[in-house]
Amino acid sequence: MVLAVTANLARKRAAADAWAGRVLDDIDDLPDIVFAQEVPAGWTDLWPRELGYRVFSTPTRGWTVRSAVITRLPVVEDAVGLVSAAYHGSYLQTAVVDWGDDLGPVRLVSFHASPNLCSCRRFLMAN
Asked: CA-CA distance, 72 to 22, in Å (whole number)?
């Protein structure tokens, strides 16, 4: 069984640190995959490689919204290019992991989505 969690951290560093601390304290029930959105700068450093975690997140470059994929599954491919609308910046983060004999390579995608209705044409034209 694979345990996956998703969290919108709302760029609130103290609350995000507290949540990660609670998750990582439960050593018997650690998540295999974390999909995180609105990741505060530096927060991804909390996920220890000693526990097998690999972090995939765009470095902070002025964007206030970043996504991250954090996983303990075997990584097949680090940087996976996805075409996204130009305004997305670092709203998307991907990694490809080996899910095992049943599925093989699986692409994980963490993304921050807007709850607003939009015109796909509008965003496609942004590229």
From this structure: 17
| CB-based contact 110:69 (threshold 8 Å) | yes
Burial 81-95 (b: 16+ CB within 10 A, else e): eeeebeebbbbbbbb
Region 103-112: mean pLDDT is 82
Could you tell me the CA-to-CA distances from 121 to 21, 103, 124, 125, 127 in Å, in that order? 42, 34, 5, 6, 11
Residues 6+ apart with CB under 8 A from 99: 2, 73, 105, 106
Q: Greater confidence, 86 or 41?
A: 41
Residue 47: CB atoms within 10 Å: 22
Pair of tokens at residue 121:
């044409």
Across the beta sheet with 75-77, what order do the strands follow? 75-77, 92-98, 105-111
Look up tokens 């609130």; give the residue: 12
